[in-house]
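Case study 2.
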Amino acid sequence: MCRNIKPLFNFDPPATDEEIHDAALQFVRKLSGATKPSKRNEVAFERAVSSIATCARELLDSLETSQPPRDREEVAAKARERSAIRFA
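Prediction:
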């Protein structure tokens, strides 16, 4: 799976529509093998992104957990630490 797609569930504040759209875009890019569709495929590409973003929003809104929400800054800091160790 694409490493650029990050978990979006159980964060405080919740995932924004922009974050969900970006994840859907990455998913469609991965499936299609194209970062930018040709003019001929542009409509199908955008329709797929929109459809997946809608489904992802429905999923995130319907999921439940007993865990407290994670802090975005804390998760990002841990990711930066792992990256620094990996690429140092």
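The chain is about 60% helix and 5% strand.
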